[in-house]
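Tip: read the tokens left to right.
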């Protein structure tokens, strides 16, 4: 499944479409957008960055170091880690 992130042009607020992207790091991607309004024609670059963890990965990558959001999440993670396995 391919998901396209569509955002508004910062000048005319028309829909802008991602035309290309480049991986800058494991958590950062640079995306080139083009406005769909032919009278505006703005082309620009935006960044998409992974900034924090809401739920941990079941297949963690040691190269990825993201902050975990909220104490309740950390308490839940600790409870899961210390609970006995289900048969």
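Filled-in amino acids:
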């Amino acid at each position: 499944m391919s998901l396209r992130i569509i955002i508004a042009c910062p000048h005319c607020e028309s829909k802008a479409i991602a035309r290309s992207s480049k991986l800058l790091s494991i958590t950062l991607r640079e995306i080139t957008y083009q406005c769909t309004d032919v009278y505006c024609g703005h082309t620009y670059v935006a960044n998409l960055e992974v900034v924090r963890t809401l739920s941990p990965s079941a297949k963690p990558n040691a190269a990825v170091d993201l902050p975990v959001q909220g104490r309740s999440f950390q308490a839940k993670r600790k409870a899961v880690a210390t609970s006995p396995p289900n048969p």
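The beta strands are 7-8, 15-25, 28-35, 43-49. The chain has one domain: 7-82.
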